[in-house]
C-alpha cells in the first residue's frame, strides 16, 4: 500500500486539521479497467484522526485516471500511463499521488519451447534444472514488467532445501517471459519438486492460466 501526506500550518488550536494521510491500494498500481479505492484521513495537531472530516478527491490526469466519486475517491483506470490523484480538505491538499496504470493481462502459460517436466541427475556437478519459463499475455503479445512468483514444494516433505535462481519472484522481460531454475541445495534427495508460478494482477487475483505448474524429478 502506498501512502502520502500533506501538511498545513500548525496553529494554536491543536484540534484543527493540519495534515492529510493518503493511502493507495496495491502500491498504487492498477490495470486498465480496474476500479481503485484510495483512502485518506485528516489529522489534527496531535496526530489524531479527525472524525467526520469530509475529504474530497480529484484527478490531475483525467485522461489516465478518472475520479468517479469525489467524496469516496473511487477512481477508474482508463488507459496505460501514470495518473495523479489528489485529496483535499478545505484549502489543504495532499501531494499528488501516482497511480501506475498497466496494460490488462489476459492469461499466463508455459513459454514456447519450455517444458512442464524436467529430470535432474544429482550425481552431476551442478544439480540445476532446465529453465522454468512462464509467459504473461495481453492479447497476442507478451507483457513485460509483470511479477511472477514461483513457489517450490518438495515430495516427500522433509528437510530438503531447494533454491530458485535468480530468486523466487522475478519480472517478465520485454517479451513477457519470466525464467527461473531450480537447484537442490541441501538435505535428502526428494522424489520430486512441484513448482507453481503465479502471475497475478496488482489486486492479487490470478490471471487465466495461473498458476503454471512445473514438476522437477530427481535421479541418482
Query: How big a fraction of the residues is strand?
Result: over 45%
Assembly state (oligomeric) = single chain
Q: How large is the count of helical segments?
A: 0
Count of β-strands: 21
How many domains is the backbone divided into? 2
CATH superfamily of the largest domain: Immunoglobulins
Major pleated sheet: 5 strands, mixed
Query: Between the first and last Cα atoms, what is the distance in angstroms?
Result: 46 Å
CATH architecture of the largest domain, please? Sandwich
What is Rg? 23 Å
The outline comes out as elongated
| Helix percent band | under 10%
CATH class of the largest domain: Mainly Beta
Structural class: mainly beta
Mean pLDDT: 92
Question: Which parts are unreliable, with pLDDT below 50 for 5 consecutive residues or more?
Answer: none
Within the CATH hierarchy, at the fold level, what is the topology of the largest domain?
Answer: Immunoglobulin-like
Helix and strand sequence: EEEEEEEEEEEEEEEEEEEEE
How would you describe this structure to a colleague?
The protein has 220 residues and is mainly beta. The protein has two domains: 2-102, Immunoglobulin-like (Sandwich); 107-219, Sandwich (Immunoglobulin-like), CATH 2.60.40. It contains no helices and 21 strands. The chain has strands spanning 2-7, 17-24, 29-31, 35-36, 39-44, 56-59, 65-67, 75-77, 81-89, 92-93, 97-102, 107-110, 117-121, 132-138, 141-142, 147-155, 161-165, 169-171, 177-186, 192-199, 212-219. Strands 3, 6, 9, 10 and 11 form a five-stranded mixed β-sheet that branches.
